[in-house]
Amino acid sequence: MTNPAPAVLQWLSSNKDRGTRFLQRLVQEGSIRGKESQAQALIIEKCRKLGLSLDIWEIGDEVLFKHPAYCSDRKDFSGNPNVVGVLKGTGGGKSLILNGHIDVVPQGNMEDWEDDPFSGKVKDGRLYGRGSTDMKGGSVALLYALEGIISSGVKLKGDVIFQSVIEEESGGAGTLAAVIRGYRADGAIIPEPTNMKLFPKQQGSMWFRITVKGRSAHGGTRYEGINAIEKAVLVIHKLQDLEKRRNEKMVDPLFKDIPIPIPINIGKLQSGEWPSSVPDQAVIEGRIGVAPSEEMKQAEKELMDCLEELTADDDWFKLHPPQVEWFGGRWQPGSLEKDHPLMNTLSENYEKMVGEKPKIEASPWGTDGGILTNVGSTPVVVFGPGVTEVAHDADEYIELGEMFRAAEILALTILDWCGVDTKAEGE
């Protein structure tokens, strides 16, 4: 078999029902945070059937907790393991990490769903359920591509390292644990829902909490107090100015179709206990985007410097400056050259299967790619089926045809990247 691609594509074309059933079972195991074990059991079963060498472990040792890239507020991961399956190559080829996360966001308001959030219902070429597009459909595309290669009797030269990690939605502790465990490669693909676009660059992000002080007073004599909400509004305006300045510096063409490449989002504002009282404290919580090639510390500094500007012309802020705390989620940015060999290989196979060149953009959200890049020194491309718009929404779904097309592209990319050992075929 000089060129195994036709046989692999034929297998994939003939076994779509198998891929659909596996995705359905995976979605039906609602693997929200802290309940990933049953979905991981299905992944383990599939990896065993494929003959992959398995590494299953519970993350959460001191090395992970003390790592500078660790940011989760979760300390107990017992019962919910990371899973890595390795397809060992015969030697002489490039290695490839295929990274997917098994955790999904909560289902939200049940009344907003037409069917059960974990139904796995198939209708009109779509499979519905929480996690179908973010990102169990992508993980199934990875395993389906591998199954097509293995079932066709192909022997690869380079190692393929399939990863099903926990905790991506809360900052990437699962992928960080895999890097610490020693999993690195010549390249990596993360099939997040990119609508089949290629993302060589990913925005990073950090959560912040800003506490704004005021002074209490009766609402009838509010002029005797300092309203913390009104002061918080000044802080928010300052953050909006900072967002504008930071984005004016973003001239990367990969962001040209993204209105705000690195947003600053105010996600939460808490203040006051009584309508007739002047509140003495307001707490703002939000998220600041980090440019792909930017240091996290630089983004932190710009936000801190911005708030210090408030003390220049506000007597209250001079005595009571806003207090900043960095907490919770933190996603590392990532950047890869547009002409990197992995990008070229993936692009060529996309064009081969779709008949046109892929769209190449920068990711408007964070992924585990930043950890693989910055901590694991592994080049990353984010590419997968599904659209972000439905990822965390009610009635989340994935187009099954798109998932299978992604699997075809991934299978060809694995063959080209890792290399085929024709001498070992049939052994």
General description of the model:
It is a single chain. The chain has 427 residues and is of the alpha+beta class. The protein folds into 2 domains: 5-202 and 333-424, Aminopeptidase (3-Layer(aba) Sandwich), CATH 3.40.630.10; 204-331, Alpha-Beta Plaits. Helices cover 34% and strands 21% of the residues. It contains 12 helices and 18 strands. The chain has helices spanning 5-14, 16-28, 37-49, 62-65, 132-151, 173-180, 228-248, 296-308, 315-319, 341-354, 369-374, 400-418, and strands spanning 53-57, 82-87, 96-101, 122-123, 126-128, 160-165, 188-190, 198-202, 204-213, 217-218, 264-271, 277-278, 281-290, 323-331, 334-335, 360-363, 380-382, 397-399. It has a 6-stranded mixed beta sheet, sandwiched between helices. Strand 4 and strand 5 (126-128) form a beta hairpin. Helix 1 crosses helix 5 and helix 5 packs across helix 12. The model has no long low-confidence stretch (mean pLDDT 96).
Quick structural summary:
This protein has helices at 5-14, 16-28, 37-49, 62-65, 132-151, 173-180, 228-248, 296-308, 315-319, 341-354, 369-374, 400-418; strands at 53-57, 82-87, 96-101, 122-123, 126-128, 160-165, 188-190, 198-202, 204-213, 217-218, 264-271, 277-278, 281-290, 323-331, 334-335, 360-363, 380-382, 397-399. The chain has 427 residues and is an alpha+beta fold.
